[in-house]
Predict the structure.
Amino acid sequence: MGGNHTQIEFILLGITGSPGAQTPLFVLFLLIYIVTLVGNIGIITLVRMSPSLHTPMYFFLTHVAFIDISYSTAISPRMLADLLSEDKTISFSGCMMQFFTLAFFGTIECHLLAMMAYDRHVAICQPLLYVTVISRHICWQLVASSCLFAFLSAIIYTWCVFGGFFCGPNRIDHFFCDEVPVLKLVCSDTHSSEMVIFAVVTVNEVGTSLVILLSYISILRTVLRMCSAQSRARAFYTCTSHLMAVSMYFGSAFFMYLQPPSSHRSLDNVDSVIYAVLIPMLNPFIYSLRNKEVKGALVKCGRRFFIHWQHRRALPSRT
């Protein structure tokens, strides 16, 4: 994969060119990356340890957590190294693989968020059919199909971005290999590549956002027909965490990838930090702090751990 190119390396200019800001940013982004890993691994562990969370919604949530870990890991270690190093070069193949990884995991997350919205739709609008419609087997089929579609989409994205002719400048004005800054370095005409990318992004992001929108319109209609105010509040409460995550993810993605390349400005770095660094860190907090089931499971696991710890401490005193 990849077109004709004379240089074998790119140079990532990073988030900032100010030497004085690099060390504070390193500390900040290192803490964010650690919190991202701990929070998402914690979500995966909690769901696996808590039988009450063995439902399709949390099955999809564990996959979102894994995607967030993978997406963040594809960016943050390299970004952190560049903040402390004068050598910010990245090979052509390394840049291409980083982009492919980000496109792959980013597309999967779009589909997973749509699946979670459909799960809430069936749970609230068709509760008697929930076990049949959202079975474990169907959940695995949905995840597998989203991975296959994301893989094919990522190949198309990567070919369109790196399949051109690179003959001159090799300085990428970004902190990772993303579509717009790399396409700016292509010497050949990129209009057709940009149109293909726009079409595939539209299918993925607009298509999945329509599934989410239609699911929540149906949920809203069902909830408003409920007689009990308590039932309405409970139904809305189960959706708030997912709606917050969807709003942040799709909002930043639309801003980043569904505008013409000529419209991209310096704010892209800020949006990329939100999209690629902050959102993977915030998702575990959104799904735990706004979710009674997760908080209840966390309390139960904490109690079990405390009882087990007390039991182990008491054993030596009995002998």
About this structure: The first strand starts at residue 9 and ends at 12. The radius of gyration is 22 Å.
